Amino acid sequence: NAGVTQTPKFQVLKTGQSMTLQCAQDMNHNSMYWYRQDPGMGLRLIYYSASEGTTDKGEVPNGYNVSRLNKREFSLRLESAAPSQTSVYFCASSHRDRGLGEAFFGQGTRLTVV
Amino acid sequence: AQTVTQSQPEMSVQEAETVTLSCTYDTSESNYYLFWYKQPPSRQMILVIRQEAYKQQNATENRFSVNFQKAAKSFSLKISDSQLGDTAMYFCAFILRGFGNEKLTFGTGTRLTIIP
Questions:
Q1: What is the mean pLDDT of residues B6-16?
Q2: Cβ–Cβ contact A19 with B under 8 A
Q3: Once rounded to an integer, what is the mean pLDDT over residues A94-112?
Q4: Nearest residue on chain A to B111, judged by CA atoms?
């Protein structure tokens, strides 16, 4: 009963380094999301994938790339990390065609860029 | 683009009292869902309650209920008999249905503190 698994939980990067945040869901959901959470800003959508092979920009996509490898996995890549990308990142998934749109979330990744 | 507004950054209430959190949203569509999520200090996002726009009846889940005013585009959350475990960030969220490219949009959140 894993739900949405997100790794790592914590990460410290130096400015200019790259990294990939991994996300996998085992609920056969179509839709997957990446959000960032900053104090006073709520959850802001970075990228969205409605199905395998498709991705769409959200509100704050600059500095990020994503890959929907298959139906289960949706990764977020920072090519050249900047201090402004210090944040808590959440992956989420939901059923587009069934259910009531509820999104299930991973545990979050606290990323610090120094 | 759809927007969600939560105008109360912080609220506090005595234990056992009732508190109402406000949320407004903006859309020109008629088929959508609304949600309230709770985020305790553990950081986990937990669904509290959902409302389908085509249903006139307000959703209720135990001590949690909503006041859904579709014409006013308002979706407030009422917590009755508040408990210490209700202390958390609360986020209002919105998603369109039926377009194939729905995006779940969140408000900025309300930090709720229950005072013993």
A1: 97
A2: no
A3: 83
A4: A40
Higher pLDDT, B58 or A95: B58
Inter-chain CB proximity A100 and B45 less than 8 Å? no
Q: Is the confidence at residue B43, as pLDDT, over 70?
A: yes
| The Cα angle at residue B101 between residues B100 and B106, in degrees rounded to 5 | 130
Per-residue confidence (pLDDT) for residue A99, from 0 to 100? 59
Query: What is the sign of the dihedral through the CA atoms of A97, A59, B49 and A10?
Result: positive
Per residue in A52-69, pLDDT (tens digit) is 889 999 999 999 999 998
Kindly give the pairing relationship between strand A56-57 and strand A109-113: unpaired
CB B89 within 8 A of CB B6: no
A20 touches chain B (CB under 8 A): no
CA dihedral angle for residue B98, residue B58, residue B115, residue B89, rounded to 10 degrees: 0
Measured between CA atoms, how close is B72 to chain A, in angstroms? 22
